[in-house]
Amino acid sequence: MTKLPENFLWGGAVAAHQLEGAWQADGKGVSMADVMTAGANKVPRKITDGVVPGENYPNHEGIDFYHHYREDVKMFAELGLKAFRTSIAWTRIFPNGDDAEPNEAGLKFYDDLFDECLKYGIEPVITLAHFEMPYHLVKKYNGFSDRHVIDLYVRFAETCFKRYKDKVKYWMTFNEINNQSMYNNDFLMATNSGLVFKGDENREAAMYQAAHYELVASAKAVKLGHEINPDFQIGCMINFTPFYPLNAAPNNIMLAERLMQRRYWFSDVHVNGVYPENVETYLQQKGYRPDITEADREILKAGTVDYVGFSYYNSNTVALPEGRSIDENLAPEDVTVENPYLATSDWDWPIDPVGLRYSLNWLNDRYHLPMFIVENGLGAYDTVESDGAIHDPYRVDYLRAHIQEMEKAVELDGVNLMGYTPWGFIDLVSAGTGQMSKRYGFIYVDKDDDGNGTLQRSKKDSFGWYQKVIRTNGEDL
Ligand code: P53
């Protein structure tokens, strides 16, 4: 018996700003990602006020995929990929976000890239906004805190849908739109919504407003996309990090449930077209009155998604601290505890393969839609041996264990899964830290955290392993 359907989309995932580089080529504008400096392990990236001379901005060069894409896609074909998930850099198409006309050179780049993929039978899977809003919109509107940005995003989406309607079938509107539920984190607010806080603004209220405008923008785009090509499959994309209660203490169970509600209402709106009761009630309770019109509510209903795309890296275990109450609405970072059953990566991310099966089941029970695992993987330090080999059994162990759990979810639990695209299958700049040394790839790229290196590509041991996994449709792990 074959566990996975014959047309299962085995692939790999990246995002434009983390690999393309060429940040000023052919008319590209400055994006949010272009003003983020290099951080380090446990050192957050800085968001500078524009591009400041002397700072290290690793996304400016990325791995220069912009100039290497032909040889890279050839290697992706050798790996056996059936799907390539990337994003379209908004600033290549609309350099400032509000330009009168799109930038033809930017549009042409993605035409050429998609043609190159299709030549090898690789299906492009495209995210429209993956952490790289035009910086001009950040300055002018404070990102998605302004309603004007809805239509600017929709115009970008429409331009892409029309241009690539015969080349791209699978789309996602916003990458990990729910990261901003952790509104205390500057990086997540900036990358999701282009929100840069200057003082003591109410971050939570700002988040609910910006997220609403994004959800409206997404729904408008979904509706339009279906009109442009009824065969389009347009999904949402959420970061799925399930909250586990540390133990059976009822308050910990309720705490985990409450945190799940605060983190997953975004996909409730994407899928159901309405806000869940718990969010409506919470907004009232807090006295927040985001600008949500009746017309918006109609749009949300008219633009529900076709599938649920999600990333899965780890679970998050929580416990209510002594003397605290659930109704204080504690932030996840204030209640996260070590899970005694799980090992962690060098970046302290728990490693929890069963959590992937749990996530697939949870999402299936809640949404009853096809699902697409569009990111999963292990960031790790790799060592290049004197003969050039890179032995990365830790990466294979991580992925094998996750694929096994994914296959159980399909085979034994009946989930409808479209595909699996491991993250950063070619080494690229880490989103969270800006490091090159946090590597996810099967393909090694010679570049270090200071930007030195030849950019030469080579195969790690995991390359041959993943090739075999795809060839056997996940039978031989
Ligand atoms: P890096 C935070 C938490 C979970 C996933 O992350 C996240 C983030 C943002 O860093 O991002 C997703 O590179 C994201 C990718 C990113 C990948 O996970 O920090 O969609 O852009 O590279 C891995 O190790």
UniProtKB/TrEMBL annotation:
GO terms of molecular function: beta-glucosidase activity
Annotated Gene Ontology cellular component terms: cytosol
Active site: residue positions: E375
InterPro entries per the UniProt record, alphabetical: GH (IPR017853), GH_1_N_CS (IPR033132), Glyco_hydro_1 (IPR001360), Glyco_hydro_1_AS (IPR018120)
Protein's UniProt keywords contain Acyltransferase: no
PROSITE patterns: GLYCOSYL_HYDROL_F1_1 (PS00572), GLYCOSYL_HYDROL_F1_2 (PS00653)
Keyword Hydrolase belongs to the record: yes
Single biological process term from Gene Ontology: carbohydrate catabolic process
Pfam short name (any one): Glyco_hydro_1
Keywords carried by this UniProt record: Glycosidase, Hydrolase
Gene3D superfamilies for the chain: Glycosidases (3.20.20.80)
Family membership: Belongs to the glycosyl hydrolase 1 family.
Protein's recorded name: Beta-glucosidase/6-phospho-beta-glucosidase/beta-galactosidase
UniProt source species: Pediococcus pentosaceus (strain ATCC 25745 / CCUG 21536 / LMG 10740 / 183-1w)
